[in-house]
Design brief:
This protein is α+β, with helices and mostly antiparallel strands. The chain contains 3 helices and 4 strands; from the N terminus they run βαβαββα. Strands 2-1-3-4 form a 4-stranded mixed β-sheet. The longest helix is centred in the first third of the chain and has 16 residues, at 17-32.
Length: 98
C-alpha cells in the first residue's frame, strides 16, 4: 500500500518464462490505465518477505491493493493486457480513456 492509493502489483521472478511473456502485456495495461492506478513490480528473488506477506505461491502473480479496509485481490484471469484491464476496470472502478 502506498499512502492509501490503489496499487496494482506484479510479483515476478526473472527466470520465469510466463513472467517474461507477460511483461509486454503488463506494460501495455499499465500504459492504458496510466494516471488512474499506480502500478508496481516486485522481484520475488530479492524480496522473499514480500512474497510471504502477499501469500504469493507462483509467478507471475498480480495483486490489487485498495486501502486498508479492503482485502487484497489476486488476479486469476488470462495473462493479457485486455484481460487485466477489464478486471481492473471492474474491481477498481476505473475506466480506460478512449
Amino acid at each position: 500500500q502506498i499512502r492509501g492509493e490503489t496499487v496494482v502489483v506484479e510479483y515476478y521472478a526473472p527466470w520465469c518464462k510466463h513472467c517474461q511473456q507477460f511483461k509486454k502485456e503488463w506494460q501495455e495495461a499499465a500504459g492504458r490505465l496510466l494516471g488512474r492506478l499506480a502500478f508496481a513490480v516486485v522481484d520475488g528473488t530479492v524480496a522473499p518477505g514480500l512474497l510471504q506477506d502477499a501469500n504469493v505461491t507462483g509467478f507471475p502473480t498480480v495483486v490489487l491493493y485498495q486501502g486498508k479496509e479492503q482485502s487484497p485481490l489476486k488476479y486469476s484471469g488470462s495473462l493479457t493486457s485486455d484481460g487485466l484491464v477489464r478486471w481492473l476496470e471492474e474491481q477498481a472502478g476505473v475506466r480506460e480513456e478512449g
